[in-house]
């Protein structure tokens, strides 16, 4: 008899779950700022990584429902910072954007545990992606390991923690939500979002920064290796 509660698929968030997006993005922004300051040295540019990240997030909120492409949102945030210094130069805007994307691309690599863990898990489960970002399996060299993928920027504003995006995954592979385990680094978007959608969920805290006061109440890991070491792994139960 088939167990209706048995895990048949594992979905992963991408940014800061499968690769170090935060540090890579910050490093790419540092290189972008260097180009900005060097090109307009006489303007005494004073801008920080934190300011650019905040501006990017504010731009995403402002353009919600209007612009879904995350690359366009990042580019628009660069245009805004240029305009604050009275700069209207489309060629330089393109140069800034290219500096950022090129730098980030060179840093886009999976965490060391990702490929070994997913290869082992794939022998027992379908493997998928549910992401609010725009880093795709091919960017991480894991395209041949992924069975299904769902990206919010392709869904006209539907994103985690909205239950709709999680349930799309269960429909895509024709199983019950409770038969999918979701793993991600965001407590609200991944852990709680998945649970409210009927999924089982695990929070991954790679930098060990999650508040200790909440840890006793949630399932938490620091590495994907912890998943494949669980005694339930080989039985496909988790």
Please supply descriptive tags for the structure shown above.
single chain; about 240 residues; alpha/beta; Rossmann fold; six-stranded parallel beta sheet; 9 helices; 6 strands
Commentary on this structure:
With 238 residues, the chain is of the alpha/beta class. Helices cover 43% and strands 11% of the residues. It has helices at 21-39, 49-62, 70-84, 90-107, 114-122, 137-140, 163-172, 187-196, 225-228; strands spanning 9-12, 126-131, 148-151, 180-184, 200-204, 220-221. Helix 8 links the parallel strand 4 (180-184) and strand 5. The radius of gyration is 20 Å and the shape is elongated.
- What distance lies between the first and last C-alpha atoms, to the nearest angstrom? 18 Å
Strand order of the largest sheet: 3-2-1-4-5-6
Global mean pLDDT: 92
**Reported CATH architecture of the largest domain:** 3-Layer(aba) Sandwich
SSE run: EHHHHHEHEHEHEEH
Structural class: alpha/beta
Please state the oligomeric state of the protein chains shown. single chain
Low-confidence stretches: none
Q: Fill in the CATH topology of the largest domain.
A: Rossmann fold
Radius of gyration: 20 Å
CATH class of the largest domain: Alpha Beta
Give the tally of structural domains.
2
Annotation, overall tally of beta strands? 6
Helical coverage, percent range: 40-55%
CATH homologous superfamily classification of the largest domain: HAD superfamily/HAD-like
Q: What overall geometry do the principal axes of the alpha carbons give?
A: elongated
Approximate strand percentage = 5-15%
The biggest sheet, with number of strands, parallel, antiparallel or mixed sense and barrel status, is: 6 strands, parallel
């Amino acid at each position: 008899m088939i167990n209706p509660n048995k895990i048949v698929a594992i979905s992963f968030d991408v940014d800061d779950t499968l690769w170090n997006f935060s540090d890579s993005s910050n490093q790419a922004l540092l290189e972008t700022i260097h180009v900005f300051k060097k090109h307009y040295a006489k303007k005494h540019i004073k801008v920080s990584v934190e300011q650019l990240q905040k501006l990017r997030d504010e731009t995403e909120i402002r353009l919600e429902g209007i612009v879904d492409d995350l690359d366009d949102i990042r580019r628009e945030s660069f245009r805004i910072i240029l305009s604050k210094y009275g700069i209207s130069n489309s060629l330089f805007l393109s140069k800034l954007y290219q500096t950022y994307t090129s730098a980030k691309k060179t840093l886009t690599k999976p965490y060391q545990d990702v490929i070994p863990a997913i290869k082992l898990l794939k022998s027992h489960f379908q493997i998928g992606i549910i992401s609010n970002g725009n880093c795709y399996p091919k960017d991480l060299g894991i395209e041949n390991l992924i069975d299904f993928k769902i990206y919010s920027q392709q869904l006209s504003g539907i994103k985690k923690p909205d239950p709709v995006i999680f349930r799309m995954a269960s429909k895509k592979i024709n199983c019950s939500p409770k038969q999918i385990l979701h793993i991600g680094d965001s407590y609200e978007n991944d852990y709680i979002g998945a649970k409210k959608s009927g999924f089982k969920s695990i929070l991954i805290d790679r930098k060990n920064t999650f508040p200790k006061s909440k840890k006793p109440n949630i399932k938490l890991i620091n590495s994907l290796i912890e998943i494949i070491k669980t005694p339930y792994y080989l039985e496909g139960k988790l």
